[in-house]
Amino acid sequence: MAYRKEKINDLIRDEVGKILHENLDMDNDAIVTVMRAVVSEDLNHVRIYISVFPSQFSEEVLVQINKQIYFLQQILNKKLKIHPVPKMFFVIDKTEERAAEVEEIIEKVKKE
Question: Residue 16: how many CB atoms within 10 A of its CB?
């Protein structure tokens, strides 16, 4: 089952990335990247982690995606050959920001 979930995670990550690239119209010049997808144990939900550059547009992009979530879900439903297709939830991936903060702390400690 773990192998199947991993394959579904990869498939959803790739397909949602394509869907966002083709269908997400942003007023700003934000670049949206799908970092990872994590499917629930029962395969009914998927949490999709996105990264936005520049990061100051993160909340704006998330609001825009959530306004179009039903449309995006319909496209995903048509593309995937699995049943049921997990319901999407989008989350801003803060891994890069946290990594930068940790590196900054390490540098401060090294200087002391």
Answer: 23
- Token pair of 97, please? 């920001």
The domains of the chain are located at 2-111
Residue 1 predicted with pLDDT over 80: no
DSSP state of 15: H
Q: Say if domain 2-111 classifies as CATH 3.40.50.11290.
A: no
pLDDT digits (tens, 9 = 90+) for 6-62: 999 999 999 999 999 999 877 778 899 999 999 999 999 999 999 998 888 999 999
How many angstroms separate the CA atoms of 99 and 105, rounded? 10
Query: According to the model, what pLDDT value does residue 79 have?
Result: 94
DSSP calls for 36-98: EEEE-TTSSEEEEEEEEESGGGHHHHHHHHHHTHHHHHHHHHHH--SSSPPEEEEEE--HHHH
- Res 93 pLDDT > 70: yes
Q: Give the sheet arrangement for strand 45-53, strand by strand.
A: 31-39, 45-53, 87-92
